[in-house]
């Protein structure tokens, strides 16, 4: 494939990865920012989103769009409720102690993963996209006949992939509005800045924590519902999103939401482009190397603030 | 860390010694009092225990489930017909997680904890390669159903046999003339990046060159991959034929994205059905497969000239004419591979009967009896077709099928003969001592 179309295809693939990654990493980042909890089970909430999307769509039947819309509405709420319950039952009991929450969320990881294996089974199951038209993309070049347009072999995307990118942008804009413009967002930010002081001012910190933990998991689930028609639901699918989310959050700066977005786009696009031109393994190696570099030279992350 | 390792190795050495002592004692008893021992054994109605190393979880799970269903059906049939040497057969299932390390541990459990007579049933080549050396150490006959060339290549040992399914080298060698003659000579290969895929890469490249063709690109994909579009731009424009073989949980995504990549202007496509095992060929997004070709170990869709053996086999395992579960038409089987379990168990039965197998002391006799087998005619025991077993290389040879997707059905277009897949022996396991 020629360089130009090749790069365009790589960028399109990268944009889809970046879109999903920004949603998933945002969930991890919010949870860490507000609660100071490193949620190792985050990838499993992602997986749970995909698996529940399969249950919802196959239970409803009918036109794929019907099931998909239902999954989009029901599944994130359901996963958020599961996560909030886990917060109440486990994380609250160990007082959100930094070390013990890591062990606690590892436990949650295995409980969710093995429960899924026992119920959903080890097979990968597809969810049909609500719409999926192949769109051939043109390319331009200046040849002997001047400016010409042609249709390279393989340069294409699908309408659904474009929808995923658009949906992620809309969801992130909505999230930004909630955090900056609503009372819930205000309370969240207050808890993030100083939870003791917030409590002194009458903020129900415990409820906010449950809410935030649910929100983080819900965002991961939302990303999964969007991606499941492209991939398939499988009980081990949580590993990669967890790893990439951690990479994104560390590069962007722990708890920094704008940093998370920037890093998600950086990692997603580079993963897409490097994967297409070289190999996905090299893409992962470079991303991990980048994390090491950030930790050495800018430990607070790209947009993170140093502790006062 | 090192302390723990030391302890565990000491423990296993002790248990191994204990086991050795016990079996030596048993042998001595048998030697001193041959009459009593034979009498005791003749009376034995204890079941023959077959350890089934099952890919119940991990990337091989879809195969594991259907290997399990086929194994259950084959064992039921054997037991309904009086068992082996008058004894019932019992399957002991252990999940290996499609993981080589766990595979070796599972064999250890079969030999020492469950006291199985033999082990059986592994598919994924990396698990076979990881487990077989342990089988040799444990002196546990290990009947694999794996397709990999590692048995016949001489990489493994005298205790590892593959009598129920043909190997990749034989398969691709018999496919190459069809590909070069009917589809095209410039081939791009897409294969999973582990031993099984490397067998495809190496042997098909050689086989197509022998036919005057060439492999213009080799695209290796990790078997755990979930997204594939990014690999496809490496397909060169001059490609006339795509040769694809993929495994793992995401095979449906793989084939779908292959279709999306090419759109309406695809080259010829020749795939190994592995890329679509356990997947309904009429799934949305797979319409582009119409008119493409697949290798099949055994035709998934019942053909017009279906044999009575095929019919009986489908009924016993519980799959319909489209290779899907009788109870759920959406649950498609791994039909092109799982016959290997059925046929291997029948070989084990024949081998145990020929060697008058009584217990673990007769394991070497069992292996010699299987090594002595040659022609295996098509029958209810061997519904896939006639086969020829090579006792020296521990590998069976059989017919291969090429099907063309026609109106959403896999219709057999070519049958490669047993001779098409023959190659020179690379090892003589019978020269190795037990």
From TrEMBL, chain A:
It holds the Pfam family BPD_transp_2. InterPro entries: ABC_transp_permease (IPR001851), BCAA_transport_permease (IPR052157). It is found in: Cell membrane. GO terms for biological process: amino acid transport. Keywords: Amino-acid transport, Cell membrane, Membrane, Transmembrane, Transmembrane helix, Transport. GO terms for cellular component: plasma membrane. This is Amino acid/amide ABC transporter membrane protein 1 (HAAT family). It comes from Sulfitobacter mediterraneus.
TrEMBL record, chain B:
Coiled coil: none annotated. Gene3D superfamilies: 3.40.50.2300. It holds the Pfam family Peripla_BP_6. Residues 47-408 form the Leucine-binding protein domain. Keywords: Amino-acid transport, Signal, Transport. InterPro entries: BCAA_transport, Leu-bd, Peripla_BP_I, TAT_signal. PROSITE patterns: TAT. Residues 1-28 form the signal peptide. One of its GO terms (biological process) is amino acid transport. Belongs to the leucine-binding protein family. PANTHER family: LEUCINE-SPECIFIC-BINDING PROTEIN, PERIPLASMIC BINDING PROTEIN OF ABC TRANSPORTER FOR NATURAL AMINO ACIDS. This is Amino acid/amide ABC transporter substrate-binding protein (HAAT family). It comes from Sulfitobacter mediterraneus.
């Amino acid at each position: 494939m020629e360089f130009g179309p090749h790069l365009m295809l790589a960028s399109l693939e990268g944009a889809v990865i970046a879109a999903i990654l920004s949603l998933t990493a945002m969930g991890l980042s919010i949870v860490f920012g507000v609660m100071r909890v490193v949620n190792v089970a985050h990838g499993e909430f992602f997986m749970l989103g995909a698996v529940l999307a399969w249950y919802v769509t196959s239970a409803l039947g009918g036109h794929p769009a019907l099931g998909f819309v239902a999954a989009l509405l029901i599944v994130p709420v359901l996963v958020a409720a599961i996560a909030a319950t886990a917060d109440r039952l486990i994380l609250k009991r160990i007082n959100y102690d930094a070390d013990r929450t890591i062990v606690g969320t590892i436990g949650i990881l295995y409980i969710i993963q093995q429960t899924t294996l026992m119920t959903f089974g080890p097979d990968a199951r597809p969810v049909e996209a609500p719409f999926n038209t192949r769109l051939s993309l043109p390319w331009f070049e200046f040849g002997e006949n001047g400016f010409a347009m042609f249709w390279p072999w393989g340069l294409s995307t699908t309408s659904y992939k474009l929808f995923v990118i658009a949906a992620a942008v809309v969801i992130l804009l909505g999230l930004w509005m909630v955090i900056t413009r609503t009372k819930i967002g205000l309370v969240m930010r207050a808890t993030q800045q100083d939870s003791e002081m917030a409590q002194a001012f009458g903020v129900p910190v415990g409820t906010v924590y449950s809410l935030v933990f649910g929100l983080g998991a819900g965002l991961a689930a939302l990303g999964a519902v969007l991606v499941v028609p492209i991939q398939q639901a499988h009980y081990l699918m949580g590993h990669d999103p967890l790893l990439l989310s951690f990479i994104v959050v560390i590069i962007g700066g722990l708890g920094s939401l704008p940093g998370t977005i920037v890093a998600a786009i950086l990692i997603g696009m580079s993963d897409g482009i490097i994967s297409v031109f070289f190999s996905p393994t090299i893409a992962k190696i470079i991303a991990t190397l980048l994390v090491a570099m950030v930790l050495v030279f800018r430990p607070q992350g790209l947009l993170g603030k140093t502790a006062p | 860390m090192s302390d723990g390792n030391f302890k565990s190795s000491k423990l296993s050495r002790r248990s191994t010694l204990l086991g050795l002592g016990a079996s030596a004692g048993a042998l001595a008893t048998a030697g001193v009092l041959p009459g009593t021992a034979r009498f005791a054994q003749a009376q034995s109605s204890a079941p023959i225990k077959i350890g089934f190393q099952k890919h119940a979880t991990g990337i091989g799970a879809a195969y594991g489930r259907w290997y399990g269903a086929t194994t259950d059906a084959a064992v039921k049939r054997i037991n309904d017909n009086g068992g082996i040497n008058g004894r019932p057969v019992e399957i002991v299932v252990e999940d290996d997680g499609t993981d080589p390390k766990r595979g070796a541990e599972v064999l250890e459990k079969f030999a020492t904890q469950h006291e199985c007579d033999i082990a059986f049933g592994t598919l994924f080549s990396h698990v076979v390669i990881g487990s077989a050396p342990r089988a040799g150490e444990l002196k546990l006959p290990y009947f694999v159903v794996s397709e990999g060339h590692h048995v016949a290549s001489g990489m493994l040992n005298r205790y590892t046999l593959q009598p129920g399914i043909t190997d990749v080298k034989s398969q691709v060698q018999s496919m190459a003339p069809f590909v070069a003659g009917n589809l095209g000579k410039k081939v791009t290969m897409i294969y999973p990046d582990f031993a099984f895929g490397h067998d495809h890469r190496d042997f098909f490249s050689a086989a197509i060159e022998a036919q005057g063709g060439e492999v213009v690109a080799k695209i290796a994909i990790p078997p755990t991959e979930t997204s594939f579009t990014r690999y496809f731009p490496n397909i060169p424009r001059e490609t006339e034929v795509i040769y694809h073989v993929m495994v793992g949980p995401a095979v449906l995504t793989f084939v779908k994205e292959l279709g999306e990549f090419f759109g309406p202007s695809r080259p010829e496509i020749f795939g190994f059905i592995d890329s679509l095992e356990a997947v309904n060929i009429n799934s949305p997004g797979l319409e582009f497969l119409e008119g493409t070709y697949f290798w099949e170990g055994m035709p998934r869709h019942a053909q017009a000239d279906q044999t009575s053996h095929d019919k009986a086999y489908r009924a016993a395992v519980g799959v319909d004419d489209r290779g899907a579960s009788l109870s759920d038409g959406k649950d498609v089987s791994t039909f092109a591979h799982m016959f290997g379990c059925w046929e291997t168990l029948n070989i084990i039965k024949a081998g145990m009967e020929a060697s008058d197998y009584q217990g673990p002391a007769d394991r070497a006799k069992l292996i010699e009896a299987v090594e002595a087998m040659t022609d295996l005619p098509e029958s209810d025991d061997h519904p896939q077709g006639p086969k020829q077993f090579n006792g020296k290389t521990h590998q069976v040879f059989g017919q291969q099928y090429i099907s063309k997707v026609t109106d959403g059905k896999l219709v057999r277009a070519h049958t490669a003969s047993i001779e098409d897949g023959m190659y020179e022996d690379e090892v003589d396991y019978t020269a190795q001592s037990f």
